[in-house]
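Issue 218. Parser rejects a valid record. Input:
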Amino acid sequence: MSNTLLLCAAAVPLLALAVWWLRRPSARPATTSAPIATRSQPSLRATAPVAADASVPGQRPLPAMLAGLEWRTEEHMDPAKRDRLLGAIHDIPRPPNALQQLLSPEFIAQASSSTLSEVVMTEPLIAAKVLAAVNSPLYGLQKPVSDIGQAVTFMGIHRVRAICLQYMLAEAFPTNLPGARKTFDALWQASAIASEIASRLDRALLQPGAAGALATQVVLGFVGPLATASVIPPTGLVAWLQRDRVARARLEQDLLGLNACEIGHLLLKSWALPQPLVEDVRDSGRLIAMPPHRTAPQRLPALALACLSTRLGERLALGQMGSLEGYRLADDEAPDMHHLRACLAHPALARLDEVLQSPDLQGAARQTSAPVSGS
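Output the parser choked on:
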């Protein structure tokens, strides 16, 4: 059976359940929202002009799974389905107010260990989880730390903030649905692995001494998949998550009208997070469907590293990769890597393969990537 037939066969039960779910009578009034701004980008159709692909040395033909993909935004949805989807994701609880504080431009401009400690200590349970995380073997601290300020001293404010955000987001996605816990656990583990990879790539390639800014973007990038997992019937979650991101995007759009990246964008906007950060998270997710010429060159390195970190984190968490040892971008022929490989050819990322094989990054990936198997 061909890969296409296998995909269709596996999607049938999930499609039937999701169609039933989306057509059920709504228990609350319909919600409306303004169309998503695309920052004056061209059409989001995944098929790119031949000249764009040919401009990248050694670029392979567009994979069949990617060819013809129409990347839908909110404005492309059927209004009735859009309202049901918006109603569902708006039922997801807002994370603690401290999350908005940690991401506000004012906080970032004045960030210090004391201000971070003050914000996090308003959520004592989260503070305890953060301290447990930073005292784990992953970070190799020579002596245990007992407060957030000490953690910042040893690890840096950006990295500690990213860990805080991960635990705060967990408050918005409870995993009590029958059959859903393993999927949510896998996504949380993927988020942890991806943010660690991102922090090290950030420090090595973009911002020496400031590792963690990119990790924040990566952590927020998992809001879309988590929100999507919250509205897909639990019996279809394992099959959904095991697909690569192109196959998932196509399936999500068939089932829900939007893919996880765009669903995450809607939810982050509704949480009133800073617009530039929300756009970075969205545009990073869109790189699986867009060649590099559709993104401003100065934004491309950070967006591409965030997208790569997310993809590697998911593969490691799901057991689709045993480790990053020997991993080379040029050998990765997955459909969701086609455009991303071209984006990662940016001159600022010339040392990327070398950094991916560095002991620092390899060690972090090993310590956070015990596979999570679905059932």
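Fixed in the parser; the record now loads. The two ends are 23 Å apart (CA to CA).
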